[in-house]
Please model this.
Amino acid sequence: MKKDAHFYAILAFCRACGFNKTSAFRIAYASQFVDDAKINLIFLRNQDFCETLDTIEGCPAFFDIATCHSYFKISTFNYESMVNNTVAFHFVPGCSGKRFTKKMRCKEESPI
Model:
């Protein structure tokens, strides 16, 4: 994992907000991990644990989970992927407009 602003800025922010070193490191690591995530599909072997997950070919799985910007290509963007992961981990919706896609656009001073 390449550590960049996602790691160091969040680490500094967490420490400034009063988090202890261990918690601040975990939060910063998670932020950087999300920015670097290139794996888009994970199958889970423990069937009992995964009753509520979606399945692919009968196997429980996490999919559409890659969030790394350099991994994305315009041809691979899809609406469901945008809603399920990219927006949640990278951008704060502006909540303006009538249609859902307009509401998902970022803007300064978002009410969120």
The first strand starts at residue 41 and ends at 43. The first helix runs from residue 5 to 16.
